[in-house]
Design goal:
- This protein has about 180 residues and is an all-alpha fold.
- The chain has four helices and no strands.
- Helix 1 (about 1-40) runs antiparallel to helix 4.
- The chain starts with a helix and ends in a 14-residue tail after the last helix.
């Protein structure tokens, strides 16, 4: 049962990674287009420049759910690497329950009003020619942390499976300096 649940959560995280990848490609195209227009045709667009940081924010915020699933997040491995897989699973479960989930809930709670304020006030870019509907990019903040909570649930289930011996721990890739 837990293995099937883990696969469902992993598929969700994979979709988030795929979305982040597509957004990264769109950002690349946007930056390329903006640079070509500025340097070769001496014209530019404030909206395209704002879209660059909007896309960058979305890549980062949607990518965190995938990074957690792939164990690509940053951690201090001074002691962790010396632990057995069971102890590593315990540390992962404890860290997720005590740190990641409460922080995610705080960010979700704290950012919903931020989105509501932007929507209610009809907030737009402060720059002439900038993007309207500023609430849309602000909505990415609570949405991404909801996605992170879903991914964290799958991460907890995976570590329960590792702790119970139902699954092998993921292989650690060597660090590239």
């Amino acid at each position: 049962m837990l293995l099937r649940l883990e696969k469902i959560f992993d598929r969700f995280s994979d979709v988030m990674g795929w979305i982040a990848g597509i957004l990264n490609l769109l950002m690349l195209i946007n930056v390329f287009h903006d640079a070509i227009m500025r340097y070769f045709f001496k014209t530019g667009s404030i909206a395209l420049q704002e879209m660059e940081w909007h896309l960058f924010a979305m890549v980062f915020l949607f990518g965190i759910a995938y990074a957690l699933k792939e164990d690509g997040h940053v951690r201090v491995d001074v002691l962790y690497d010396r632990f057995s897989p069971r102890w590593q699973a315990i540390v992962n479960i404890g860290g997720t329950l005590l740190l990641l989930l409460p922080l995610s809930v705080l960010v979700i709670e704290g950012s919903v009003w931020y989105v509501q304020e932007a929507y209610n006030s009809g907030e737009v870019s402060g720059d002439p020619g900038g993007l309207p509907y500023r609430w849309l990019i602000k909505l990415v903040i609570p949405a991404s942390f909801v996605f992170l909570v879903v991914s964290a649930t799958g991460f907890i289930i995976r570590n329960i499976n590792i702790f119970r011996g139902l699954e092998e721990p993921p292989e650690r890739r060597p660090e590239i300096l």
